[in-house]
Write a structure and sequence with these properties.
Layout lengths: L15 H16 L14 H10 L11 H4 L1
């Protein structure tokens, strides 16, 4: 059964299929100490965002904006 966007919506990204795999991938990064954050802002480091974006099973939401990787 194919996934279709609701009428009037150009594209819907169904993320539930990828959520568990993405969680496991990020936990593997955490386990390997590859996730870093700023002590003052507690935001992820740029290298962390790039590393997470690379392991997301369907990639990030936008090619030029790391929305999923940052979240």
């Amino acid at each position: 059964m194919g996934e279709q966007s609701p009428p009037g919506i150009e594209f819907v990204r169904w993320t539930e299929r990828h959520a568990v795999g993405d969680l496991h991938a990020v936990l593997r990064l955490w386990d390997s100490n590859r996730l870093k954050r700023s002590e003052t802002t507690r935001r992820p480091a740029a290298a962390t965002v790039v590393a997470v974006a690379r392991v997301l099973s369907a990639g990030d939401f936008y090619s030029d904006e790391p929305i999923g990787a940052f979240a």
